[in-house]
Amino acid sequence: MNNFLNMLTPKEPKFFPILKELADVILVASDLMVEFMKTNDHESAIEYYKKIKEQEKRGDALSHKIFDELNLTFITPFDREDIHLLATRLDDVTDRINSCAKRIVLYNPKSMPQGALELAMTLKEAAVAIDKAVDELNVLRKSSKKIKQYCVELHDLEHQADDIYEHFLINLFEKEDDVKELIRHKEIMSELEKATDVAELVGKIIKTIIVKYA
Amino acid sequence: MNNFLNMLTPKEPKFFPILKELADVILVASDLMVEFMKTNDHESAIEYYKKIKEQEKRGDALSHKIFDELNLTFITPFDREDIHLLATRLDDVTDRINSCAKRIVLYNPKSMPQGALELAMTLKEAAVAIDKAVDELNVLRKSSKKIKQYCVELHDLEHQADDIYEHFLINLFEKEDDVKELIRHKEIMSELEKATDVAELVGKIIKTIIVKYA
Amino acid sequence: MNNFLNMLTPKEPKFFPILKELADVILVASDLMVEFMKTNDHESAIEYYKKIKEQEKRGDALSHKIFDELNLTFITPFDREDIHLLATRLDDVTDRINSCAKRIVLYNPKSMPQGALELAMTLKEAAVAIDKAVDELNVLRKSSKKIKQYCVELHDLEHQADDIYEHFLINLFEKEDDVKELIRHKEIMSELEKATDVAELVGKIIKTIIVKYA
After folding, report:
1. For a FRET experiment, which of A68, B33, C111, C173 has its CA 20 to 30 Å from that of B19?
2. For residue C60, how many other CB atoms are within 10 A of its CB?
3. Distance from C160 to chain B by nearest Cα, in Å?
């Protein structure tokens, strides 16, 4: 009946520490992104991109590890699918952060987009909520109420990110007359906004898991 | 053998009315979009966006309802997956319409893109075909021929939408020299074109369902 | 235990020849794309697009055929899913190539983007690796080492494509002052880059299949 929970408990502990580490990768990467947004020269940009890229590689390695474990462990397809999807989405958040960092280096904008720091800070808050929610997964029956609260937070943060992004976009098309700079800013911010979208998706998956197993 | 059909018939009627209402949401939203495309001031734009946004929320609520019912109902994973996918794609059509409406408000173009009304009208025709196809799902054995015809229609309408979009794009890059306005128009129209793509996807899912269950 | 292999062997040979032909479609389409990139007039562009479009239709027909066979054949959902996913991704590569060709015709750039030929050649190398890997699938136990090598190649080629695309993008935003032309080039190249991404995805799916069945 409750294989999912078993897999996260001491008897079958291998998935839980990996999921926690995947959440930690997001935390570190979003922290770096906040600092990144405060810089304004190409050299720093390259430095921050390198550091975020390291986290992306760390996330990739963890994903591969979890997929290998899933293939080796005898569990129901149902549970397998849930863990697979959760790990994939966690990794997606880091991928989006990395992709945003890469775009800053490639497009090399004259300045950071307006609202970029604010958006990165919202993403960081989402990373904290994800980390806390994943941290309770191995006691999800006991913590289901708490975890649901983190999922609500992720939903609210996504709305907040939407507001910031929309405000940025309206302002950009009204004020920015250098169209090349306009495109640069749009490409950078849209990727960061997608990172907050995927963070909310993580919340939705965790909510589904609670409905099924708690 | 035929759980899917059972679920849509009187004994298990809960999914069918929700699917029908999801189709109705698309119908209302695409109707609004046609009217929206005839306007040309920011105040009306905000009004139409609000109305379409309401439909998007209605669609979201219906999706959540169907997912909750799916989790509570004992059905085979096979059937579960088909209903889940159909509901998801129906909701995607509304999401794309909503996203297009939002872009008109955010980008605030000087005029509506050329071909926008025509594209919205094609989408509305697709919405009518979806509505009719979903309406026959609970008698799919009897109506399989009819339903297939609606799926063919959805395929043809998607091709028609492609033609409109391509013509728009060629014209846009040839004639529009205000690059900010060019970007605005491209962003708005590409979202509307994606709505017709997803409408065709709905047709493909329904066709698969017929092959399996009719 | 090993239905997947059975399906590809003489007793159940229907899927294997279709998969091989799907790989051949990619080969032909990427060949055409390399030649396409050497041209520089609208008439040739239309001609090459037509030829690539034919391959896309051929791929579509093959996909439909494989999905129909899957629905008619009694196999485990597990195997069904793997074949379905592999066929879908193979077809996706062709779709991306076709979409890139279409964009060249629609956007009608003044010149081909810098790096376009190089990127197309990288894609063609990936097509060759895919073709070779698929060719060994029916003897995957014997050839697992060889197949893994092709998957490594696909991974490396994707990195090479990334480098080309990034170099193109940096250069584009530095040098191209005609913003309409900048957008045209960006739209064309991003689609070609996505084709190499999907080619790598094919490699990942094949690798998963080897882990499961070899």
Report:
1. B33
2. 15
3. 30
Q: Do C71 and B182 touch (CB under 8 A)?
A: no
pTM of the predicted model, to two decimals? 0.89
A58: tokens are: 């760390």
DSSP A23-59: HHHHHHHHHHHHHHHT--SHHHHHHHHHHHHHHHHHH
Q: Is B108 on the interface with A (CB under 8 A)?
A: yes
Interchain CB distance below 8 Å, B71 and A212: yes
A11 pLDDT more than 60: no
Q: Assess A105–B contact: CB distance below 8 Å, yes or no.
A: no
Q: Does C72 touch chain B (CB under 8 A)?
A: no
Q: What is the mean pLDDT of residues A140-163?
A: 93
Residue range C126-183, pLDDT digits in tens: 999 999 999 999 888 888 899 999 999 999 999 999 999 999 999 999 999 999 999 9
CATH number of this structure's domain A3-213, picked from the four choices 1.20.58.220, 2.40.30.20, 3.30.200.20, 3.30.1360.180: 1.20.58.220
Answer yes or no: are the C-beta atoms of A89 and A202 closer than 8 Å: yes
Nearest-Å Rg of the Cα atoms of chain B is 18
Q: Cα(B203)–Cα(B149) distance, rounded to whole angstroms?
A: 10
Would an 8 Å CB–CB cutoff place A179 in contact with chain B?
Answer: yes
H or E element: which one contains A62? helix A42-72
Residue B1 has pLDDT above 50, yes or no: no
Q: What angle do CA A128, A100, C180 make, to 5 degrees?
A: 150
Asked whether B133 and B147 are in contact (CB, 8 A), the reply is yes
Q: Report pLDDT digits (tens) over A110-150.
A: 999 999 999 999 999 999 999 999 999 988 888 889 999 99
Q: Note the pLDDT of residue B10.
A: 46
Q: What is the ipTM of this complex?
A: 0.84
The domains of chain C are located at 3-213
